[in-house]
Structure formats: C-alpha cells, structure tokens
Predict the structure.
Amino acid sequence: MSLLELTKPLAAFDIESTGTNSRLDRIIEIAIVKQMPYGMSSSYIFRVNPGIHIPAETTAIHGITDEDVKDCKSFKDIADEIQKIMDDCDLAGYNLLKFDIPILQEEFERAGKKFEVETRKIVDAQKIFHTKEPRTLTAALKFYCNEELINAHGAEADTIATLKVIEGQLAMYEDLPRDVAGLDEYSNPKDPTWADRSGRLKWNEDGELMVNFSKKKGLTVKQLLTQEKSFLKWIVKNDFPKDMRTIISDILDHDIWPEAPEKDDKL
C-alpha cells in the first residue's frame, strides 16, 4: 500500500458470520491481512465452528454451510492466535465500527479475553466512502443526472428529483429490472423464510413461526404465548413495522395465524 503511511502494523480484516446481530450471531470466518510499516504483509484466514446453525439466508450470501465448518475449531480455540496476530495493530476494514469490531469483541469476551480498540487507530473504508460520496437525494441527482437540486427538501422538488434519479439509474445500469415489481424485488429483497417484510418474524425449518430478533431470537411464537405472552403484547404496543404488529395482534386477539410457505420454498 504505497499511498498509506504506516507508523505501526495495520491489521485489515473482514468477518463472515451466522447473521448480522453482533451480539447474538457468531463468526464463521475471519480473514486478516497484516501490513507492516516497512512494506511486508502477511495473510491469515480462519474458518470457525460457530456452535450454532448457519441460516440458509446467510449461506446464500457467503456460501459457507454447517458442513463446511463442522470440523473447524471454535473461536475460543483460536482466540489466542488471533489476538497475537492483531496485537499492537491499528485496524482497517469496511463497516468495521458497526459490525466487524463489535462481533469480534463479543467473541473475545465469550472466550474470556479482551479485545481493546480504544488505543488503536481505525480506518473504516465505508465511512470514507459515505463522507466523500454523500448518500443524499442532492448527491444522487448530481451523480446520475448531473443536475443540481433546487429547493431541496421541498416536497414537490424532491419528488421530481427522485423520479429523475430512478430514470438515471435505469439508464446507467442495464441489468436493473425495467418494471416496478422487479425493482421492488431488487431493492427490497425478501427471504422466503420471513413472515414479515423486515424479517423480524420468520419460519424455522419445522414451519413454526419464530422471533428473529432480541434476546428472544429463535423462540417460537407458540412458546412465547405460553411462557412470555407479555413480550408479544410489547411488540404490538411498540414502534415496530405495521405488518409485523398485525401478525402478532391477529394471533393474540383472534388466534389467526399466517400461512407458512411450502417447505421447498424455504430451502
């Protein structure tokens, strides 16, 4: 990396995991490239047995299955080695601050160790990207249409600009669907195991409706009805998406359950 000046080792790393919840999910692969100030670099890749099931929807993203990692060591078994590699290193990655660092810290904590970041410098390429290329309607209109947005945050101007941006995106990306249904599927992909649009409720492998967030993740709605009905009532009363709240309220108030997808559709 000839343009990046280093005064100490830099550990760039990326993590693949069982999901996107840094507290509840587990690491299944970690790759580290350690760059030294004098130019030498070393690469390390570890496959990890997470001790929990890897959902099909995450396997579809990274291609790693339960079978692939069943004979691998646990994170606890390799924690010392990873800690030694990254010792005294600054850190680099993409979306490090929101995901990779938090899930790595959780794994180290479960292994009875600390992974300190306060004394390290952190280079997050996503932060640089979003700072240099702002994700605003004004920036999108300029990028796709080379136009300036006049009267930004006026409802009419913003609406017209949005339509222009969509047209600009269709012109720039030939692989984008040309119909609204196709664009909906492209920009709002819905896993067939999800019972609601956000995936907070999903179907498990036995066709049971379960919760897919919070400390209750993995518990079926039937279990919660008998063991902790107050949690379901809390969902209905709080600021969750309407489709999710409707599913739960229909179950609570009318014993109306959503229809599970065919098993072949979930796999």
